Structures
1.
Amino acid sequence: MDKIVALCKRRGFVFQNSEIYGGQNGFWDYGPLGTELKRNVRDCWYRDMVSAHNELLAPENAPSKYQMVGVETALIMNPQVWKCSGHYDLFHDMMVDCRATKSRYRLDQLRVRWVSFEGQTVKQEETSSELSKIMVTSTAEDFHEDLTSEALRAFGQKKKYADKLQWDGEASTLDRIDVALYGSVVAPGAEKAGTLTAPREFNLMMKTIIGALGTDDDAAYLRPETAQGIFVNFKNVVDSSRVKLPFGICQVGKSFRNEITPRNFTFRSREFEQMEIEFFCRPDESTGWYTYWRDRRYQWYLGLGVSKDRLILRDHHADELAHYSVGTADIEYAFPFLDEGEFGELEGIAHRGDFDLRSHMEGKLTKNAAGELEVELNEHGKPKHRGSGKDLTYFDDQAKERFTPHVIEPSAGADRATLAFICEAYHEDQQPDEKGVMQERVVMKFHPRLAPVKAAVFPLIKKEGMPEKAAEIFGALKLAGLNCQFDQQGAIGRRYRRQDEIGTPYCITVDGDTMTDGTVTIRDRDSLKQDRVPIDRVVEEVVARLNS
Ligand code: GAP
């Protein structure tokens, strides 16, 4: 992972946000190549899901034909939206604070493990008693090593005594530990045990103030998901675009979450981009659509070059499901920052029933004792959060029926997908240079649709008309809308390696033969094969290869 992060900075894929001021935790900037790559990810998603979808034909394995349309809604919405969606009351993580270090931790991200050291003791903050057995903690990726350092630090021992530590049980996370045992926990960097507060809820929505008065009544939230912008526009879309069930409304855009511990490069950020589909269908057809989208979305990542070995489709267990959900599956990727066998979520596909549309009609819904969804009431027996009261049902004019559509929600993260494509692309190999000496090569094997630079054009030498000829080819590729680079600096082998490192699929070289027979070489990044192609066929050839 360190090599990937270093390459991202060196070649301009991803930069730390506000780096010259020391950064801003949880926020990232994309450089010139990262911008192209992420744009290609978004464009592939939108094209494959929306603009290239043919509503006159049912795709393979789809229960029927369907329509897809897009919307672009604002980042800030009426706060009532979040009250009815449940985000205001329920969108939180459990966290603890450390009174000693003033740090805050997510319960499920703080690793803990019991340890003792030959009868040595650590002071307990509240009671001043001496504890010979404590729980040490870590937030590090490599938590095994970090737990050891924390244990040695807590007992005041040197590294060379690591093998004298007596561990009890396996490492766990703080959410699995009874609060009554917190007195034995030594927080990261704390001198004494028992400095953690009791767990409490922390709402993840980012608050902002609208208008000049700046009172609490003017508080609003940056959207934590793009989905609600779709639900509240359901009626507008049905009334304005003449879509008929089944159909999907899609949105790509920024979302914000006040993550307690942003981590793992761009994987968990506070500002990120989502690519969401809300697919509306008849309740009696929703199971078939759920299966369709679950598989379709998994195939999408495979089609863009992610290896089956590193991508899983994981169905949630019944106890992981939200109270309104009939089924949810996650598409997960084996990111290199995770332990062997662990996977991180790229996308969730949820069967949401009629929960969202009904919540925006009636008010916030909860499950009653009989397992049915009903409007949540306050202590006075009145709706806790009143819905819009607008009719968000749908009239099926063929079946002559009115009902609230069910929703399947494939919800993907554009930054997480981009990160997975970067991790997947990273390869190291050895290739001979011009003199036949083997050289280390870093090559980003991006799928041609995703590659930030599609082709590079090189004049072999800077004379004999080669730069001018190469410039003509470069201009023609640009006119065709392809992001290309022109490079005439250094030995040709070095120029190839510079392009390999950013994943350019094709390098076109103008050489001595070009000037006599009008052909150039096209070199393939992965096979390293070089073919001679007439200059007037270069654009056509590159476009054909990119689309193959
Ligand atoms: N509307 C449903 C929804 O928002 P989610 O599982 O919370 O579901 C969907 O988010 C996707 O958004 C995730 O699978 C992930 O790819 C991305 N995502 C969520 N939180 C993120 C974060 N803090 N940083 C980067 N991406 C995130």
2.
Amino acid sequence: MTTASEPRHLKAKGLKRGVPRPAKALCSDCGLCDTHYIAYVKDACAFLHQQIAELEARAHSRRRDLDNEDELYFGVHQEMMAARKIEPIAGAQWTGIVSTIACQMLETGLVEGVVCVQNTPEDRFGPMPVIARTPEEVLAAKVNKPTLSPNLSILEQIAQSGMKRLLAIGVGCQIQALRAVEKELGLEKLYVLGTPCVDNVTRDGLQKFLETTSRSPETVVHYEFMQDFRVHFKHEDGSAETVPFFGLKTNKLKDVFAPSCMSCFDYVNSLADLVVGYMGAPFGWQWLVVRNDTGREMLNLVQDQIETQAVMSKGDRKAAVQQSIPAYDKGVTLPMWAAQLMGVVIERIGPKGLEYARFSIDSHFTRNYLYTQRNYPDKLAAHVPDFAQRIVEQYDLPE
Ligand code: FAD
Ligand code: SF4
Ligand code: SF4
């Protein structure tokens, strides 16, 4: 029995899988609504209540400085760098910095558990969120499961386990909901290790993407949209396959991305303590954004296992972004020979380092702004954060 002074969630019950969620078509299946923390969904859901600025102030003790271009694009931060593991983890998405930090946090006793995503026994890309308690369980979660993943579905297990110190790994929409309910979790300390995220898909959508894009969809074990403007696939037999972005069958892929991800503006995971991606770094390196002292504490644990270099920025993205807006809008696909050629030219003269990251943010924000404006006009004003509004305003958008 609950009493009036007990938290609201103790009276609530999570929804069964398959039952529509409060955000309806916009739900990114972050997992919150699987748990009794659904009691806070109206406030916590990234698609019902966009509150990045308020949560940034809470998580990082200050808001992002919109007049500083690096903060406008990459969020509140103390430092950015390019880094890679001196001895990469075989089979990790990049060099395994995320898994290494999580293992180290468990081994040093900084945390008792790590929220991460393993795969289901029957499907290498089927997401299975867990709270890992050993480095082996963390390593079993390495590599992206490139689909929507209900990471927060494990939230009820935290209170049940009695854990007080936790690391959560996740993408922006998961972390927004997590930050919103953080104070209800009964933790002494929550660490948040985020990755950037864009263009995510349901498991069915992933299948369509693989079948439309790869020569051998069934054998793909890993893929990434890389800074050389190509999608790199790795297959079971170790062979590699690359497909230029400009050769993607955009007419067929237009509807493949989940509606949540077509209206998402938290590409850089604004609310994590530390972000580990790749897009602001030179090819082959990872890109690290240290947002606050907690993020620095996490990174310090692995300093002796990584090499680093300063971030760099080269080129000018603006014309390429402006040209890509109508091309995407009309679903134009170039013939493969032209796509290859364009890929080579853009790679030589195109944006690099932080300018590549800005290119990717601008292209996705303009596309997502148009999508939201057309499909959810009533939500637009409240859903687009101020930083995204400023970024989008740099371009001429079609009606
Ligand atoms: P690893 O050591 O291999 O660890 C990967 C971690 O990711 C694991 O801990 C696992 O729990 C977690 N994870 C796997 N799948 C998911 C999921 N679906 N949801 C939440 N967590 C998950 N970086 C960019 O710079 N630009 C991008 O556009 C970009 N898009 C991404 C899209 C998705 C869906 C994901 C999951 C990541 C994306 N990243 C992006 C991050 C990048 O691909 C790497 O994940 C990151 O650089 C870490 O690499 P690593 O080798 O250190 O990770
Ligand atoms: Fe619930 Fe998360 Fe879906 Fe929002 S995105 S409706 S919080 S499961
Ligand atoms: Fe969530 Fe945005 Fe990634 Fe979609 S693109 S899974 S909404 S963080």
